[in-house]
Amino acid sequence: MSSSSPIQLIATSPMGLEAVVAREVRELGYEQVTVENGRINYTGDLLAICRSNLWLRTSDRVLIRMAQFEARSFDELFEGVKALPWADWIPEDGEFPVEGRSHKSQLSSVPACQGIVKKAVVESMKQRYGTEWFRETGGRYVIEVSLLNDIATITLDTTGPGLHKRGYRKIATEAPLKETMAAAMVLLSRWQPQQPLYDPFCGSGTIPIEAAMIGWNLAPGLRRSFNAESWPIIGEELWEQAREEAYDSVKDDIPLQIGGSDIDGDAVEVALAAAKSAGLAKDLTFKTIPVAKALPAGEYGCIVTNPPYGERLGDQSEVERALRQFGQMYKQLPTWSSYLLSPSKQLEHYVGRHADKKRKLFNGRIECNLFQFFAPGGLYGWRKDGEKQEAAKDSDN
């Protein structure tokens, strides 16, 4: 396979963020994009695997779609998998575990499907390598068989540990927000780097750190490794090219006005440690104060936050008190927009204002809404100079 050969790729997405992930894929330059529940399909090449893993902020992982076919019997599944060019991707010493899932399909036994796929891959590779035994001591190639309505989708995982694991968070608070969701909240807010951004329930600091990375155009995957980095078919040169592109794209000369606070001093310590690990300690501010005193400085800013709630932590009465205090504080920021992720059905009541817009999202398995309160200057607030910021409604907001 040449480095420019077309490859069918899948960027997996948390529920509700498919349009955001699709926008990110298009911004990387890949236009042949189709959106399904939980996945964005697009066409790329070997370099696209590197770029996608380094740059996608809101996707969970990047997969190669090896094939999709009907499989109502184990024979159909076996023959469909065996026919694929596995030896083009997996070297003789490659480790190739098989994961699986099945929904509304005749082949409902996931362990049995995994065993069939493993056997079919071995048989396919025997034909190329002329051996009966594979040691599996080399690089990792995770294969997944996913059955839905008797259609088998066979994929190869290029990522490894999920893309939310940026590498800067060594420890976390009790109920941390995933980095991918934090990045999505910032992107959906349409915050611009010249604006102030503040998180009054910052916890371990994920939202301010992700905002800083967006503001400076820092590729979120620069501080970590990926399964596909050890794959001979891609090689070191393409990974080096993608990383050099990412380093050349950094805009760290932009002054940032990003901060956060939390009533929990231990959480703030975690946030400070994470900011230091991310190389952003000098550019972010964190304070230990209650939300009632968390009045950010500046005008035309943006609050992006994930308030505590009963399903995650804390006493419900404390949660209600914190939201009421937020509402009182927010009244003092007439030119600021605000975006709160919460499962609370009474959040607008506690805050004392109807949201201008709500968007259903899932924080892990918890169904939430992103409550969007716009500043009076328009859909996405005001520019720093006080002029109205006009912005068209996008399909992903």
From TrEMBL:
Annotated ranges, domain THUMP: 48-158
Pfam families on file: RlmL_1st (PF22020), THUMP (PF02926), UPF0020 (PF01170)
Coiled coil stretches, renumbered: none
A single GO BP: methylation
Annotated keywords: Methyltransferase, RNA-binding, Transferase
Keyword Acetylation applies: no
Gene3D superfamilies xref list: 3.30.2130.30, Vaccinia Virus protein VP39 (3.40.50.150)
A GO MF term: methyltransferase activity
Top-level taxon of origin: Bacteria
Protein name: Class I SAM-dependent RNA methyltransferase
Organism: Paenibacillus filicis
Lineage: Bacteria, Bacillati, Bacillota, Bacilli, Bacillales
